[in-house]
Structure formats: structure tokens, C-alpha cells
UniProtKB/TrEMBL annotation:
Region (Disordered): 1-24
UniProt source species: Nocardioides currus
Keyword tags: Membrane, Transmembrane, Transmembrane helix
TM spans (from-to): 47-69, 81-103
Designated name of the protein: DUF485 domain-containing protein
UniProt keyword Transmembrane, yes or no: yes
Length: 122
């Protein structure tokens, strides 16, 4: 019969981290940690409101434009009315572009925040 043998090495020690004051401030809920978190949240909120504003201006105003310019309701692009084409087809790629941009900027904000906290830790 074959006997199974378990081979292990000596226990490994984890590298000790130095004084991590930036993250410690955030974890401890100090005033400085609160300022750090508020700056990140404020930047993310500004980004979200900017994207939402752009969405309202571009897509949200389409019904108003068609109401104010009734002649546009008669415009056809191929077999489809312009309003259907804009609201039923063009809107979706635009939402994807806005979502892509939002994610990219949001991740960049988080990277900037992490580098700021790492700078303080040094």
C-alpha cells in the first residue's frame, strides 16, 4: 500500500507593516480620517451629479424638444420616426458611454485617494 506523506515547510512570518497613519486615522474615526473620507465622498458625489446632469440635459430634454418643435415629430429616418430612433436606439449606447466614463473616473478618484493616504503614511 502507498502511504501518503504530507510535506510542509516552516511557518512563514508575515512582513510587518510600518506605521500606517493614514488608514489608521480612517479606521479609528478620527477627525483627520473623517476629512479624508469626506473628500473622497464629495469627489464621488460631484462625479455622480455631473453624469446625472449630463444625462438629464441630453436624454431628459428630448421630450421637451419634441414638444417645443412639433415639426420634429414628422421627421423620419428610414422607416422609423426620429423620436423613436433617438429614444429607442441612440439612448442605449449613450447610457453605456456615460456608465463607462463614470466607472473610469470613479476608479481614478479612488486611486488618487489611495495615493494620498499612502503619501501621509510615509
Amino acid at each position: 500500500m502507498n502511504e501518503r506523506v504530507r510535506v510542509t515547510g516552516p511557518a512563514r512570518r508575515r512582513a510587518t507593516t510600518g506605521d500606517r497613519s493614514g488608514t489608521r486615522e480612517i479606521d479609528a474615526g478620527t477627525e483627520l480620517g473623517r476629512v479624508y473620507m469626506q473628500s473622497l465622498l464629495r469627489e464621488q458625489l460631484r462625479l455622480a451629479l455631473g453624469i446625472l446632469g449630463l444625462l438629464v440635459v441630453t436624454v431628459g430634454m428630448l421630450p421637451l424638444v419634441f414638444h417645443l418643435l412639433p415639426g420634429l415629430a414628422e421627421v423620419r429616418v428610414g422607416p422609423l420616426p426620429l423620436s423613436w430612433l433617438l429614444l429607442g436606439v441612440v439612448v442605449y449606447p449613450w447610457l453605456i458611454v456615460l456608465g463607462w466614463f463614470y466607472i473610469r473616473r470613479s476608479e481614478a478618484n479612488e486611486r488618487d485617494f489611495a495615493s494620498l493616504v499612502e503619501e501621509v503614511e510615509r
